[in-house]
Amino acid sequence: MGHRVVIVGGGFGGLYAAKQLGREDVDVTLIDRRNFHLFSPLLYQVATGALSPGEIASPLRYVLHRQKRTKVLLGEVVDIDCERREVILSDQSRIAYDTAIFATGSTHSYFNHPEWAKLAPGLKTVENATAIRSRLLLAFENAEKDSDHEKRRAELTFVIVGGGPTGVELAGALAEISRDTLAGDFRSINPADANIFLIEGEDWILPSYPPHLSVAAEASLTRLGVHTRTKAMVTDIDQEGVTVKAGGQETRIPAKTVLWAAGVEASPLAKVLAQRTGVKPDRAGRVPVEPDLSIAGHPELLVIGDMAAFLQDGKQVPGVAPTAMQQGRYAAKLIRNRLRNENTNPFRYFDKGSLATIGRNAAVAQIGPFRFSGWFAWLTWLFVHLMYIVEFENRMLIVVQWAYDYFTHNRGARLITGEEEQENRVRRRGRD
Amino acid sequence: MGHRVVIVGGGFGGLYAAKQLGREDVDVTLIDRRNFHLFSPLLYQVATGALSPGEIASPLRYVLHRQKRTKVLLGEVVDIDCERREVILSDQSRIAYDTAIFATGSTHSYFNHPEWAKLAPGLKTVENATAIRSRLLLAFENAEKDSDHEKRRAELTFVIVGGGPTGVELAGALAEISRDTLAGDFRSINPADANIFLIEGEDWILPSYPPHLSVAAEASLTRLGVHTRTKAMVTDIDQEGVTVKAGGQETRIPAKTVLWAAGVEASPLAKVLAQRTGVKPDRAGRVPVEPDLSIAGHPELLVIGDMAAFLQDGKQVPGVAPTAMQQGRYAAKLIRNRLRNENTNPFRYFDKGSLATIGRNAAVAQIGPFRFSGWFAWLTWLFVHLMYIVEFENRMLIVVQWAYDYFTHNRGARLITGEEEQENRVRRRGRD
Q1: Which of A19, A36, A99, B14 makes an SS bond possible with A57, Cβ 3.0 to 4.6 Å?
Q2: Which of B245, B261, B277 is the last residue of a domain?
Q3: Do B145 and B20 share a structural domain?
Q4: Do A184 and B65 touch (CB under 8 A)?
C-alpha cells in the first residue's frame, strides 16, 4: 500500500492536484459533495441562459477514470481527526490519510446580513445559476402581465451588488439579454427598457484591475445601458428594492431582482480546520499556510485555493481559478518530492493576467505587460477560455453552442425551472 | 380587433395550433405555466444524462416571436367561464376568447395509490427528468460507499413499472449506462452488476405494437441484461423495494430505485372543463369531443391532444405527439374555415407508425406496412427524431451531442443536482 493522499474538494485546486498525483506512486481519494467538477468562470453564462449546466460540468469520476489508483467518493467532509490522521464525513465515516489536501473553496459572504441571502442570491453553484436564470426570466414575464406602470418599472429593474469580474460579466450579459436576445419576444413591454444597476463600494469597478481597464469596462457597460454606481454601499435589501448610500446620501432603488456578486468567505470547513490545528483564520475565514502551503506544525495538511490565506509580497494571492490550479499542482509536486526526499521551493503564484467580458464583443484584459480592451480583448477571453475548457470532455460543444448563439443572437437555455415553482403549482392545484 | 383565440397549453398540440394560426386573421393568446415547449419524447435522454434540459426545450416566446398577433402568457388556467367566454387564471385574472383550444395534456396516474408518487417518480417534466437522473446516479454512488452485500444489491437494483415506449426506452438507456457509460468509473463496484427489471401488466411489452415487434424488443432488452416481467402487476411499493404479483404468486424485489412509466390520466383541467360544459369524462379523465374536436353544445371550445377522448373506428387515438400535432393543425384549420364560412371534414388521425429505441443501435419500428427492428430501425428512429427537432432552434446541437456521445460512449450531462440535495447540505451544516 502506497502513501495515502486524501483530497477534499474537486474544484480547480483539488482536481489539478488529483490529476498530477495520478502519475505518482500514491493512492488518492478525492472527496466532493457533488459528483461533478464545475467550470465556475462560466457559471454566469448558465445564469443568463447561454449554456446549460451540463455543458460546464464534468463528472469527476469520468475525468479521473483512467487513474486506477484514484478513488472518487461522494460525500461531505465535516471534521478532521489530526491525531488519528482521518477526515470525518457527515455520515460519521472516516477516511485515513498520510497527507491531506484541503480545497473546498469559498462561499458568499453577506457581511453580517444573512437575511439578504434569500433576497439577493449569489452565483456559486449550478442551483444558484438556474435559480438566477428563473428569476431574471420571470421578471420579464411578470412585467409583461403587469399593467401598473410603477410595478412594471420595478419588475424591469435589476440591481447587481458588487463590481468585480462576476458582477461586471453578469451586468453585461443581462444588458445583452434585454437589448438583444429578448427583442421582439414580448407584446406589452419592451425588454430594452430594463434598468440595470451595478453597485460597487470602491472607487472603480473591477478594483483589482489596472485603473484604465476599469475605465474602459465602465465605458463599455455604459454603452450597453448599465448604470454603474461606484463608492456606493448597499445598506438595505428587501422584497421591493435596495437602499444605496453614496456620498453621505441614501437613495432607494425599487427593484424586484437583486443579485449578489460582492463578498466571499472561505468555506465553513476552513474554520474547523483552523480550530483543530490551532491556527487563526484571516478576516475572510481563510486558513493561514506556510510557504509550502502546509499548516504550521502540520506538514501533512495542505490547504490550497480560495480557502488558503497565502501572502505573496505582502498581498493575498487572488481568489481565481489559476491560483487554485497552480497551488493544486504545487501540492502534488511537494508530495512527490517528499517521497523522494527532495526539497521543494516555496510556492510562488505566477500571475498570467486578468480578463473579464462585457456582453457581446467587448472585454478588458491585462496579460503580462499588455493591457487592452474592446473586441480584441474579447477574442482573447474566448481563446483563453476555450483553451482551459480543453480539460473538459464536451469542450467542442461549447464552441458550437457559442458560435451558434453568437450568429443567431439567441440563448437557447432560457428555462424557468425549479422545485419551488413546481411545489407552488401543486399547492395551488390542491386548492381547486 | 379580429377573432380572439385562446390556446391553453404549449405542448405539441397547442404549439402546432398556434403556429398554424399565425398565418390567419386572428389574435392568438397562448397560455402555458412553463415558459418553454418541451420535446418530451426525448425526456428519457435527460433522465439518463445524455442531453441537458436546455437541449430539448425551446422558449415559447422565441418559437412564436415572429407572429406579431400572437401573445404568449406565463400562467396557469384553472377554470373557465363559458357564459362570459373567459378562461380564468390561478391569479384570478381573466382572458376573453371567441374560440378556446384546450391542450394541457396528461399527467401520471398511480391507480389509486397516490402515495407511490414520491417513491416511484414518473417522467413528464424537466424537473422529473433531472430528479430521476440524480436518483440513478446516486444509486451507483451509494453502492460504491456501501460495503454490505445485501444493501449494495438493493442499491444496484432498478425497477421500471410499465412496459410501454417510455419504460422500454428508460430500461434500454439504463442498461447502456451501467454496461457501457459508467464502465471503469468505480473502484468498489462493477456498474454492470446492476439489475434492471421492467414490469408490464399485459402479455407483452409494448402492447400497442404488433406482436413480433414486442418479441424483438424483449429480445433486445434481454441481450442488454434487462429482466422483463410481463403479465405482472405491482401490488406494493415502499422505500426498500416493490412487490410484484404474477401468475397468482407474489414476489418481492428489493430495490432502492423505482421509476413509474405506467398509467397516465388527463391533466386536472379536463375535469373542470367537463364539469362546466356538462359532459362526462372517460375513465382516464379525458374530455369527450365531437368529430370536429369541439365539446358537444360548445362549438367554440376545442379540446386536443392527450386530454381529448376521441374515438376513431371505435378506438381511442394513441396519446402520442403526432396525434396532438395533427389535432392542433386541425383545430387551426377549423377556425379558419369557420371564419370563411367553409365546411371542415371531421378530424381523422393518420397513423404514421410507432418507434421505440432500445439502448444503443437497436430499435423497433412500425411504419405503414413496414415492421422492422434492429440497427436499421434505430437509424430510422434517429432520422425521424432529427426531422421533428427541425422545429427546434437548437436542433443541430443535438445532432452534434449525439454524434459525440455515440462515438465516445459518454453521456456528458451526468449531474446530481437539485434543491433537495442542497437543503440537506445546509441543514447538515447548521448542526456543526
Answers
A1: A36
A2: B261
A3: no
A4: yes
